[in-house]
Fold:
Amino acid sequence: MRRVVKVLPEGLDLRAAPGELLSDVMERAGIPLSLYCGRRGLCGKCRVEIVRGAIPEADEFERSLMARGSLPKNHRLACRFHVDSDVSVRVPPGSRILQMPVLSRGTGRSVALAPAIKKIRFSLSRPGLVSADSVLDSIHLQFPGIALRGPSLETLRRLSRHALVESGPARDMTAVIHADAELLDIEPGDTTARNFGLAIDLGTTTVVVELLDLNSGTSLGSVTGLNAQAQFGTDVVSRITAAYMDAGKLKELRASVVAGLNAMIGVLIAENQVSSDAVYETVLAGNTAMNHLFLGLSVATLAVAPYHAVFSVLPALPSAETGLTVNPLGKVYLAPNIKSFVGGDIAAGLAAVGMDRQKGNFLFVDLGTNGEIVIKKGTRFTTTSTAAGPAFEGMAIGCGMLALPGAVYKAHYGKNLMIETIGGLPARGICGTGLIDLVAGALDKGLVSSRGNVLNPSRTIAVTKDISLIQKDIREIQLAVAAIKTGIRMLLGENRMTTGDLDGIYVAGAFGNYLSIDNAVKLGLLPRFNRRKIHFVGNTSVAGAKALLLSLSERRRCEKMAQKIRHVSLAKGDEFQAAFVEALEFKAWS
Amino acid sequence: MELKNRLLRMMAAAIVEGDKETAEVLARKALAEKLDLHEVIDKGYLPGIQKVGELWEKGEYFLPELITSAECMKAAMAVLRPSLEASHANSLSRGKIVIGTIEGDIHDIGKNLVASMLSANGFEVMDLGADVKLTRFIDKAQETQAEIICLSALLTTTMLNQGRLIELLKERGLRERFKVLVGGAPVTRKWAADIGADGYGENAPSAVKLALEISPKRGQL
Structure:
């Protein structure tokens, strides 16, 4: 006869077969119970309060937890509890898998906290006189069912130093396990509370490093800085060229980015008083070129057509080999490259947005130097990159600059020209969104023709006393806008779609935060589209790196997706030139 | 005389304005009036192309205008060509040019523009496309007895192949046989000099000027 399990606070009545494990019953019902140690009774995270019904005797695992004060008296572990009679249980918040929000703005997507790194406390007891099990074997016995790969030689050496037990009670040790499969490290004592990870967006121009607590899923802080490789060139191609022509330069490129990252990591762990040894996993999302240079791989294949990458999906790498100052026994995971120049930052971005979980057709465009575009049509994904160029980052523009304090980021032609600068400081240049505003405004006011000609006699558009836009600047913006517009149109065409078939547009890239949709549409950068269905999602690369750090299943899903996305090379078609040339005209479209 | 001068001025204007129909109509008129076709090209249409080049330099004309003007020129030439061929069998061409985007590179808009304008200016142009293997440039140039090889590259990485092509010509003992012109966004005058190219064109109009200057058949048309 079926037993009834009442679950509070939801008030659900679940049916269980006699003797069925409570954790199985709850899993069947979709209750997100944390099964951190994989039902081994070691972590205590699946504990529930028995509110009504028979409380069975505590088993050895439960007694062990009680002795440490980790299991209150009327609580039992759901993974050890067999439902023999009707029972009412309350699931405390701490026993639920947390849903972590992923994006700092936008779609409200969240992922279930289930990171690859798990720290599980166990007891290393004195070997019995009868059975002299090896230290490693006695540890493996505590984790039945997982084939533990590893440990590394370094871990084994540490273990051999800690394992000598002369007298006294069993010793607390903590196993650090990666992806439920590999024993990375054994730490003396109970270090389960100190479990941290890093999420990194390795951008061509800007790098963001975020420190996360892998137990709570919360962010402890982030640091943003410029990519130190800029000295070798501001764009991907210059850096690839430098590395391609000179193996010594490749080493330098790698060294500079690793040093830059380590400096940023150093700041974060110092600020939060975390030891670098407590950081066991780093997830890094970068474009293909950045990934290759970070690992010190030759970029010869990226330098010439067909511009293919050396790798797409990689298993997590030993931290020690990457040069990052984190626990050397830990892992570094790179978000998978999709194809060619469309890299891990886009794969991570798609994971952050969760586009594959939505029904319908969507466009995802990253407004940056590489202008990557992804279209989801039903279950099929296509992507391309458009080499929009640095104009959107304020480069190649006379008075252009990055979006830093003092940059004109908003502009409007009323009776006079009104501008706003970042930080409210005196204007010292114009950044991407400011450029869009100025050109669209100038177009409206007849200062610039739709063909990009600056019409006034001075052939310049004055912004402030010292800052103006010249004809050449307008041409650069035409080229950048045309690249994105052509990319979007051709990818739509490739899928036999029009903008009318889209259920939404995701605009990623820090640029998107302040972009005026009206002005972007006027110039043709974005198509005319239902305002409410355009979602600005900010830096999806770091959000995606976070999602992949916090959830192993998101990682697997991301890898599958990266491998099935179809890449289209815009240059292949004959229509590219005609479409690109036509797109040079500033014109709204849909 | 007056009619001829008026027509010549209108031909130049048609090119500058990118008016394909008018360019064609004027070409047919030139044929009907039995005007000297070489004069029609040299003093009518070509000045239009030159003016377009100047407007490009000034920043007033951009890619679309260059392409449209080249199309106009091509259209006018298409009308005139049969008669040109009939009257002067082999001096039609100012020379033969093999052009392409260098091996490893797929960018071709700039190269297409140069090819269009060279053809519009009376050269016989063999456009090999993009990602063209070095050996293919040389083989085609030999096969067609071209005078000039034009190499376009848009990346600093693929630009290196321009140098390699010149080395390859030397290895085969063919360096003196062809003039090699290079161009493309990252290419500079210094680079052209470093690799021993015969010339460097910053954009399509200057490429045409350069080709005209070094063409061995200059003045023969």
